[in-house]
Design a protein that fits this description.
Blueprint (H helix, E strand, L loop, with lengths): L1 E9 L9 E5 L4 E8 L2 E6 L14 E2 L2 E3 L6 E3 L15 E7 L2 E8 L2
Antiparallel strand pairs: 1-9, 2-3, 3-4, 4-8, 5-6, 6-7, 8-9
Length: 108
């Protein structure tokens, strides 16, 4: 297993505080990208409660809220702040020359 860095968007494509769904990898994965209070975050694209899409949700105070049932998730950790036992994956984000990259673990 190795960590692979994928270009996923231009910094100009991501609106502040609004989640943008992006694809990555050779076996397409997806995540939602946020630019919130000057920081970049990439999290899983689905709420684990009932697989509701998180794309387009607004980031507020370091959290996002699922539109379907109101579950809140911390952008840094992916932990559900509404109900224990739920969480979403988080990915490393790097910005280089106007391009947003995420790093994910992939099997060789």
């Amino acid at each position: 297993m190795r960590k692979v860095r994928h270009p996923v968007a231009s910094v100009d494509e991501v609106l502040p505080d609004i989640g943008k769904r992006v694809m990555f990898g050779t076996e397409p994965g997806e995540c939602v990208l946020y630019h919130h209070h000057g920081n970049w975050y990439a999290v899983g694209s689905l709420c684990p409660h009932q697989n509701a899409p998180l794309e387009g949700t607004e980031a507020r105070d370091g959290r996002i809220t699922c539109k379907r049932h109101g579950y809140c998730f911390d952008l840094k950790t992916g932990d559900c702040t509404t109900l224990g036992g739920y969480g979403i994956p988080v990915y490393d984000v790097q910005i280089e020359a106007g391009t947003v990259y995420i790093s994910v673990w992939e099997f060789d």
